[in-house]
Fold these 2 entries.
Entry 1:
Amino acid sequence: MSQPARPVPEDHILGVYNRAPLAFDHGRGSRLYTAEGEAYLDCLAGIATTGLGHAHPKLVEALKAQGEKLWHVSNIFRIPDQERLARRLCEETFADVVFFTNSGTEAVECALKMARKYHWARGETDRIEIIGFDGAFHGRSYAAVYAAGNPAYVEGFGPPLPGYRTLKFGDHEALKAAIGPKTAAVIIEPVQGEGGARALPETCLSELRRLTREAGVLLILDEIQCGLGRTGRLFAHEWATDAAPDIMCVAKALGGGFPVGACLATIEAASGMGVGAHGSTYGGNPLAMAVGLAAFEELARAETLDHVRRLSGLFAQSLGALAARFPDIIEEVRGKGLLIGLKLTPSNRAFMAAARDEHLLVAGGGDNCVRLLPPLTMTEDEAREAVARLEATCEALRKAAAA
Ligand SMILES: *Cc1c(COP(=O)(O)O)cnc(C)c1O
């Protein structure tokens, strides 16, 4: 059977991304530079990943020093920096144990397997159901796309994985009805990132914790985007009373741009995961852990978190004023801390392109939002500059709509 020849993309890259026609050569702090030296103000930070900005001196130093010493050994050996970072993460959270990964998706994968195995090891082999919420994003593995349930991300990939349910974000009654003797875990982002900066009200999170605890269901928090200082607390669930999960996924800012993720758990929730139950070649290797340790120490500093709260106050105030001046462009300002969403009237793609024309980089998001995810280290002057560039973006879009 002969078929017309398919054109091969010029860049030979699998076409799963809608890429901006822009490439960067280097970065420093909150700025990215093209090879021609043109500067852009970075309000997306690699999607909340370069949380400490570009080329942070402490991260560069850690990477260089470890790079000359030892990159990789297998997890069949002890890795001292892995133990150090695990201890620090446990000191600062509810957790007792940590499994390190190379990505957020793998942290989610570990969490979901851990939850099912917990019940299985207790003889509750029917408890396999994982409840997630619409608008969620947990990564792109099979389990992660079903945990989030976004129809666009599961379509065409064969029969659905059994045991996953998606409920409406914030529908308490549906949740109460759904939790039962077959429920293994509930997975949720305290602040949805990709879904368009939707923050779960703090009282809802506390209530969810109470419900799951009473039902013997594990609570998995996906803090991959909203955690590690982004909301002004080290972890977003800390804003809510008594909302510590059983399992928590982190990644993104943990490596500051170097691939590092982690699944944190209480010793109880992890009780099914014995020798051989899970593993990773690269996860937690010496190079990743050296950078992760340096990044975590910076992110966890009280000064960093204070700065985030100050900066987010500044953004909230000036973006509120901007939305009031441009109600034809910005419908709503939402999110939490420095995970900020602008729900737009014009398409978010058009807004991102117009912002790029103003040399400002913002991220897209669900529900026709753009997200502002500046580095936590952005200065107040840079934040004011970002707002000025957003204002120019709104002016340009208003002019274009009138033309
Ligand atoms: C980015 C993200 C993931 C997936 O992380 P990867 O490192 O891309 O695998 C999962 N959950 C949330 C909330 C995220 O923002």
Note: The chain has two domains: 26-56+302-402, 70-299.
Entry 2:
Amino acid sequence: MGLPWKENENMSFSTPTMMVLILAFVCKGTLSHNLGYRLTSPASVSVQRGLCVHIPCHFTYAAPHQTVSGTLYGYWFKNNKGSWYYFYPNNHYVQGLLVVTNDKRQPVERSAVGRFHLTGDPAESNCSFSINDAKFEDKGTYYFRIERGNLRYTFITNQAASASLHVVVTELTEKPKIWNTSELVVGKPVTVICQAPGSCSGTPPKISWRTESKSYKTSLLHHQHSSRSWAYESEITFLPSLADQGKALTCSVTYPAVGARAEESIHLRLDYQPQDIKTVVNIQRPGCPGSREEEEGLDPVVAWEGDTVRVICRAEGRPDPSMAWMKENEIVTKMNQGKAHTLLLPEIRLQDAGEYQCQARNRLGLTSKTIRVIVQFRKREKTRVRSLR
Ligand SMILES: *[C@@H]1O[C@H](CO)[C@@H](O)[C@H](O)[C@H]1NC(C)=O
Ligand SMILES: *[C@@H]1O[C@H](CO)[C@@H](O)[C@H](O)[C@H]1NC(C)=O
């Protein structure tokens, strides 16, 4: 349909009429400023693209008008030089684009429909409004107008017709929030939640996950906190395996109304019981300084009396395991946290022979490995001969 106000540039009205219109527009803002008209709102608000903002606003108007009966209509205009808005009921023009009103007779700017909401009741001197699905094109200056019978007033703060409210729209930089609802442990199902930025009642964002984990299940959750405040969350449940260690879990949020996107990733740090326990044996024979054999997994360990035997025990686990070497249920040596712990048997004696068990333990469990140490008797004839000489 052809809205007259959209065609106002082509409409022919005399220059005097136009002058009167402009004077009426400018003068009301200045003259009436001293006559009990006041609007209180933030001078400027900032909103990220795709998100929402609520602008608290309160106004007062001249006492003689307060007793007039009839509905008090409120109108928010976006300043747009060159466009004039045509008011049907009173047959007059106002500069700007109408974005929201409680006056059902007046058509509002198409791109504002459903996104701008007058949340305050003008009858209660409340001009609060909200913007949902914020778009770059929303940035600019806005001003409020009231009408009731002969009361027609636009709240403008100075003669240069600057608007009372400045809206800034920036790119979406807020990130989704990700958190785990239980500890991250290999082999234990875990649910991770992602919450979309903003708590807006506009078009719901779409939340999706990217993961390298094979077995997972996602579901979308919406929580309404109040009529204007929502939380959009998605949860993913999966069974982490050791192969998922360090892998990224990404939550991606898109705002379909404006095509904005926000992403956040976490890297899985999975706890697991100690495993992959290994031993490396090193024997040093006296008089043979070069003889450092290192052998992984050697069992049994066969040494000569007087040799120095080292057995390094390594294990993987998260958190780092505490490690101990035991012999017949007695601790030989232990350490609090680490990935390797050495059993040192210097100048080994016959009674050092036996079974040694390396234990690696963290809060998730224990793993162990036992090796047998055999000590062979070394004949001391040569030594005796030497001392007899
Ligand atoms: C104006 O209306 C808004 C939205 O309903 C409300 O949150 C606010 O408290 C009201 N302000 C006053 C001063 O009543
Ligand atoms: C999330 O995982 C970490 C690492 O496993 C853990 O320390 C933390 O307690 C977990 N959070 C909750 C709420 O369980």
Note: The two ends are 126 Å apart (CA to CA).
